[in-house]
Design brief:
The protein is of the alpha+beta class and about 80 residues long. It is about 20% helix and about 45% strand. It has a four-stranded antiparallel sheet with strand order 1-6-4-5, with no helix packed on it. A hairpin with a 3-residue loop joins strand 2 and strand 3.
Length: about 80
Amino acid sequence: MYFSVPVSSVDKVCFNAHRIFKPSTVIKEFTQMKLKVFAYIHEYKIYETENPTPEKISEIEKDLGEFDCGIFIFEKFV
């Protein structure tokens, strides 16, 4: 499954218009799936990590801007 949402280093709501999520928050919601790839767009550059560990996601969260695009590729457990 491909899933994309705005991501940042903190969860927040921007003036009732939209929500921005930490990548770890999104990953926790998909308990029946395994994260295969996490990619994000920051300052017009694309960064991609295959089979990221929770520690790697924590590192990435520290480097995110206020409003980046997160792209998650999940695979359902068989």
